[in-house]
Amino acid sequence: MLEDLKANNRRWAAAKLAVDPGFFERLAGQQTPEYLWIGCSDSRVPANDIVGLDPGELFVHRNVANLAPPQDANYLSVLQFAVDVLKVKHIMVVGHYGCGGVAAAVDGKRRGLVDHWLHPIRETATRCRHELEAIPGETDRLNRLCELNVIAQVRNVASDVFVQDAWARGQKISVHGWIYTIADGLVTDLAVTTSNAAELDRLA
Q1: β-strand 186-189 against 174-181: which pairing, if any?
Q2: 61 belongs to the catalytic site
Q3: Catalytic-role residue among 96, 146, 160, 176
Q4: I want to staple 37 with a disulfide (CB 3.0 to 4.6 A). Which of 47, 70, 75, 112 is the partner?
Q5: How far is CA 13 from each of CA 31, 50, 51, 53, 57, rounded to the nearest angstrom?
Q6: Separation between Cα atoms, residue 150 and residue 190, nearest integer Å
Q7: For position 196, what pLDDT does the model report?
Q8: What is the pLDDT of residue 1?
Q9: Cα→Cα distances 118→9, 47, 66, 182, 186, Å
Q10: Among this protein's residues, is 128 annotated catalytic?
């Protein structure tokens, strides 16, 4: 199977060169993406493919359930590099319906270390308990929790000191919350875009 992957790689590289002979030479020179994608590790949610961008055009951070926890050094390192070095203009937090991580956070089963990782989702579920309980049907409730999780992570990103300091010095950055539907391949904007510190209050 690994030989198949290597063969696929060679076909992919050849196809890129056939269309654009200088593609990899330019790519090796530098990366200048305008976008940071914070998404789920789910194999069905390929960031570049979903938005039709080539390598070099999208800086990507993925983890279980698309979290942006302020205690996670991995996420924070990516965020700082994207904001301070790459000077991205847009940060998209992208969740997806039917997220297994979101479901695992609230199904009451114990899985080990990942239970600690998913704790922020349980906090969101508790905070929004009345809204969620009013939704008939487990699938619809979980899908709404997927949306609420995205919104919570948008708030985490927008309230982080790296983003706040960038806004204070006049750097243009917008933080967006999107949700992806695996069943049709489409992204929905959750209309929680935040482009300055004053807009944070509406995400409470």
Answers
A1: antiparallel
A2: no
A3: 96
A4: 47
A5: 18, 20, 20, 16, 17
A6: 9
A7: 95
A8: 86
A9: 34, 21, 10, 21, 25
A10: no
Are the beta carbons of 143 and 132 closer than 8 angstroms? Answer: no
Give the pLDDT score at 204.
61
CA angle at residue 179 from 84 to 82, to 5 degrees?
10
What is the strand order of the sheet 174-181 is part of? Answer: 58-63, 35-40, 90-96, 174-181, 186-189
> What is the mean pLDDT for each group of 10 consecutive residues in the chain (204 residues)?
95 96 90 96 96 95 98 97 98 98 97 97 98 97 98 98 97 98 98 94 74
Residue with structure tokens 């992208």?
94
Residue 42 annotated as catalytic: yes
- Return the pLDDT at 30: 80
Nearest to 200 by CA among 174, 162, 172, 180: 174
Give yes or no: 129 in active site. Answer: no
E-strand ranges in 73-122 read 90-96
* Residue 29 pLDDT: 86
Q: Are 68 and 92 in contact (CB under 8 A)?
A: no
* Residue 146: active-site member: no
- Which of 42, 155, 160, 176 is labelled catalytic? 42
Q: Indicate which residue of 11, 44, 111, 129 is catalytic.
A: 44
